[in-house]
From TrEMBL:
This is Lipopolysaccharide-assembly. The lineage of its organism: Bacteria, Pseudomonadati, Pseudomonadota, Alphaproteobacteria, Rickettsiales. It comes from the Bacteria.
Length: 151
């Protein structure tokens, strides 16, 4: 009985679960601004695995512009000044605008980091760095998905 009353109260205030499947329609109204940098293409592939975005400007109501900058930062350095652990850092500025009016809906910044171990093998360090970058991009896609859900 208490659960039923709680459901009625939540429904009456307009509450909708954030991860409800009916929320997916908002994504089909969002288009990502073109940016041919490698990191932006990788982000687009990653977010496309999570949601279906508008692929045509005529169908889209919102435009998402991203400025993604990458950096690397040594976080563990041994006595011989050799870096043993490094963070890949994505600094992201985003702006969501209405396509018809050009009105800014939301803007902000995100900072995502992912760490990896370095080794004496350059190839092993490269593979570790690529994995860390993929993880950071995947996390960024999930954060952007959450932001879009709140539109």
């Amino acid at each position: 009985m208490i659960k039923f009353v709680l459901l009625l109260l939540l429904a009456s205030c307009g509450f909708k679960p954030l991860y409800h499947s009916g929320n997916n329609e908002i994504f089909s109204k969002v288009m990502i601004a073109e940016n041919n940098s490698d990191i932006n293409r990788r982000f687009y592939r990653s977010i496309s695995e999570l949601v279906t975005l508008a692929d045509d400007k005529d169908k889209a109501q919102y435009l998402l512009k991203l400025d993604i900058k990458t950096a690397r930062e040594g976080v563990l350095i041994d006595r011989n000044s050799i870096t043993k652990r490094t963070n890949v850092i994505l600094n992201v500025d985003y702006v969501i605008t209405e396509i018809d009016t050009g009105k800014k809906i939301q803007d902000g910044s995100l900072k995502i980091s992912s760490g990896y171990n370095t080794s004496l093998s350059e190839f092993a360090s490269y593979v570790s760095e690529e994995d860390a970058t993929k993880n950071a991009i995947r996390e960024l896609a999930d954060e952007i998905r959450k932001i879009l859900l709140m539109l």
